[in-house]
Amino acid sequence: MYASVKWPRAATPLTLLILILLPLATLVGLFVPGFYRDTAWMIPQARGQDLMTFVTIEPLLIVALLAYRKRPIAAVLAWMGALSYVLYTYAMYSYTTYFNALFLVYVALFSSSLFALIDLLAHLDLEQVRAGINATLLTRVIAMFCALIGFFFLVAWLGQIVPATLQGTVPAPILLAKTPTSAVHVQDLAIALPLYFLAALWLWRRRAWGFVLAPILLILADVMLLALLAMGVFMAQAGFAGSLDMAPVFGVMALLSLALTAVYFANIQALNAAETPVTGVSTRAV
Description:
Layout: H1 11-31, H2 43-67, H3 72-96, H4 103-122, H5 126-131, H6 139-167, H7 172-177, H8 183-204, H9 208-237, H10 247-266
Helix pairs in contact: 1-2, 1-4, 2-3, 2-9, 3-4, 3-9, 6-8, 6-9, 8-9, 9-10
């Protein structure tokens, strides 16, 4: 029965730790004047991201935990999507934000989300996830959107990197941030964008990993696009001209991403009471 579904042993306490630390990491940055020691160009971006992190990821993790017993497939995919955003964000905060009093909190969020995600993935039943998706799901539409996200940011980042490389200069974002390189460039080009392309390919071919990666990456896109909008607003308020030039594009992409996320999760079936939970552990009472 649903009431006897075991909680993932490592991911659950790690996620509870994230739920405790996330408000601290975001609200201090938002409301404590002068807390961030980064450049004037970086601070409004950090504060915009803090806002979106708190208002989206904290509730999403809570909902995923509460829904896990009754809708384990949908809950665990949403759970992993939220963790992927925490991992992406606090990996970047850990090694690019100028040292401040929350450094150990950033590292704890980075580590906790990484190992919670590993725990959930290690116990995932791929075939059960695929079997739990309705045949009516718009797999190829979602696959094309994942490819679009990957292509859009690939062109955007190479558009900054390649001209600077050819001219022997440094991309403007690196100069404005006063960092050795761009963490966004590194994480996207090395990890995130290849995953979007793989998810697109695997979902197009209806392979099991495509059904797992696509919703995780849709949630990551949802929150990151909303965060980019919030960053633009905070930067405009700080007096940076042109900060909202890309807002219409990000807004349309965010709406499309949120709509496809809703479609995806609406097409996930609830397990019958006698079925094995998504993590593949025993349904006997703990």
